[in-house]
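Notes, p. 3: input format for complexes.
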Amino acid sequence: MVQVAVLGYGTVGSGVVEVINTNHDSILEKTGVDLHVKYILDLRDFPGDPNQEKIVHDYEVIVNDPQIQVVVEVMGGTEPAFTFSRRALEAGKSVCTSNKELVARHGTQLQQLAKEHGASYLFEASCGGGIPIIRPLRTSLSADVIDEITGILNGTTNYILSKMIDEGLEFDDVLRDAQQKGYAERNPEADIEGHDACRKIAILSSLAYGKRVDFTDIYTEGITKITSADIRYAKAMGRTIKLLAYSSRQKDQVMAMVAPYLVEKDDPLFAVNGVFNAIFVHGNMLGDAMFYGQGAGKEATASAVVADVAEAAQTLGTGVVSSWDPHRQELKDVSGTKKRFFVRAKGAARELSEMEQIFGAVEPVEAELDGEFGFVTGVMSEQEYETCASQAQGILGMIRMRDRKGV
Ligand code: HSE
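Output follows (407 residues plus L-homoserine):
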């Protein structure tokens, strides 16, 4: 029997206990491991809960119990999650987590520590919730050289954008609705400003390209500036708007960014709607592959955590080898990257010719909005766009175009 302790009895923590209890026999059959939850750490008591006798308030009980071999950290945040994870690994216990913030900040160090102590630090649920993506990158795709990852990695923002597109609503109204339905956090900043997606693409890129991508180096824009007017232009172009977390590698050069993009109808990411996530991966041998599923939610996330628990339990004493070069991967400056830009400007469409004098040839986009007009630039670098935009009068907004087949 493998004894497990769960740190945090919130949404994911209670899901983990439920998955271990409900699917105990099928996990045993498939993996040969007999999982048993011995402790649940939480500050609160849960009178009447079927697992109430397992609740402890003192971490020392867990870390000093030699029977505990796997610790599930689903507390969120960096402290005390980091200290608890570090101490568990130092005691030779494996740690499985869904905590993307902690993995992005301290994952390198915690993986090293796991290696030193013959334990595992596993984090399948940190990216894409229930979607298997970490293990495929670590094992199934290990024979490939990955050169691109593009993900819809945040369910909250994808839900908001989908709802704005389907119902023509404004950002603030949909955000309020998402909060009422419990999709968006009360403090939704990490989601809507793109920080959550940024941490997740940093984790995936570190794993795919083999060297530590620091999330603080990634250029990140959220969705707070997207309006119903943008949606009207997107529809007029037959496109949709998605918050994309993108990274690519060419030879030794890695670039990464998070920003809203106008996505074409035949792009595999076009139809990923609501709280769903998708991760598009391109490998030099594999070609295109896409991973799709529930990017958040109690059961889906818990299922990914428990699969890690089973793998950690199968490899007790040796640990799962999973790490990347701890040195910081230098990222290419995004200002040199080229693409087309959709631009909205104040005024009448006849003023397009003034824009052409600044941006060069542009394609108008008709969305019949009063007092403004929209156009798409030719292919130019971010730096060139910024220079042109600073010379033009009345720019209302810009969204990048994702053109997979080139223009
Ligand atoms: N806030 C995250 C999201 C939860 O909306 O995707 C899953 O990481």
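The chain has three domains: 2-129+298-326, 142-294, 336-402.
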